[in-house]
Amino acid sequence: MGNIADFIKSIPEAFNSPAITITLTVLTLFLLFYYTLSILKRNNARNLILIFTLFILVTGIIFILLGKDKGYGWIYFFIPLFFIIAVIIMFATEIKRDIWDTSAKKPNEIKHIEKGTGNNNANVCIDEIIKALQNMSKNDVGAIIILASSMLPKAILDSGVAIDADISSALIESIFFPKTPLHDGAMIINGTRIQSAGCFLPLSQELNIPKDLGTRHRAGIGITETINVTSLIVSEETGIISIAQGGKIKRYADSEMLRQTLKEFYWQDLIGQNK
Predict the structure, then answer these.
(1) Cα Rg for the chain, rounded, in angstroms?
(2) Mean pLDDT of all residues in 62-78
């Protein structure tokens, strides 16, 4: 341990110039920040937390050893700490999204949902969903449908009622018909099946959402902020259809916009059908 401490103490002696020391410090922080961005692009907050923990321990120990003889080594310990706090504040949504994903059900905990089986193939699903959305829009029936390509967190699924049924416009419209038990919650579509309905979603806390958008729209936006899903929302007041993805919402969605969004969701199934 003594040899390691002596080696660390010898490092600043090799760089007597303050400019070199500052340059290396800035470069190190820049590289760490760049790597942090690349991790967050892959929504991998668990690796980010691990890296931060190791970073603050290693740099904290090194800085304390370098500055302990001068009496201000503890100051350097707060440099990585402040950096970590800043990144957590800046990327709170990405970190929250990955934390949500860690609580998702594992595949072996729920029934596997087959895709592209029977007569309920991707094209049929697309047509049925669009038909249901347009019918509900004409009749000013509020609805929120979540397109999930993977399993959602257990807390969300357990808040609703398991359906596990083929996708059909009649079933979708009946579930969202006013005064029915499940009409106020969200419908979860996973693959070519309606997985559950009546689910409660986290509301968006963004302040720049238009005031005329109510709880249903905030829920549709909020789920896309934390999980990689798409929300299809029908306004009960205006009949306007909206699409929410990545925390952003597009209003006045027509049939072409809906079809393009659904094709992106079912792209794997569509490729399989065309082979």
Answers:
(1) 25
(2) 56
Q: 160 and 265 in one domain? A: yes
Q: Could you give the CA distance from residue 136 to residue 176 in angstroms, rounded to a whole number?
A: 8
Among 145, 43, 148, which Cα is nearest to 105's? 148
Percent of the chain whose pLDDT exceeds 70? 56
Q: Number of structural domains, the chain?
A: 2
Same domain? 63 vs 165? no
- Residue (of 105, 129, 125, 103) closest to 114 by Cα position: 125
Tokens read off for 128: 């049925």
- Segment 160-175, tens digit of pLDDT: 999 999 999 999 999 9
Query: Residue 179: what pLDDT?
Result: 87
Q: Do residues 149 and 244 both lie within one domain?
A: yes
User: Of 235, 234, 162, 232, which Cα lies nearest the Cα of 197?
Assistant: 162
pTM above 0.70, yes or no: no
Specify whether 201 is located in the same domain as 129.
yes
Domain co-membership, 72 together with 114: no
Q: CA-CA distances (angstroms) from residue 73 to 18, 22, 76, 137, 178?
A: 16, 16, 6, 64, 65
Phi-psi region of 162 (alpha: psi -120 to 50; beta: other; left: phi over 0): beta
| CB proximity list for 118: less than 8 A, separation 6 or greater | 166
> 7: domain range?
2-102
Q: Are residues 93 and 116 in the same domain?
A: no
Same structural domain, 59 and 179 = no
Report yes or no: 172 and 189 within 8 Å, Cβ to Cβ: no
Beta-bridged to residue 146, according to DSSP, are 188, 231
Q: Does 90 share its domain with 217?
A: no
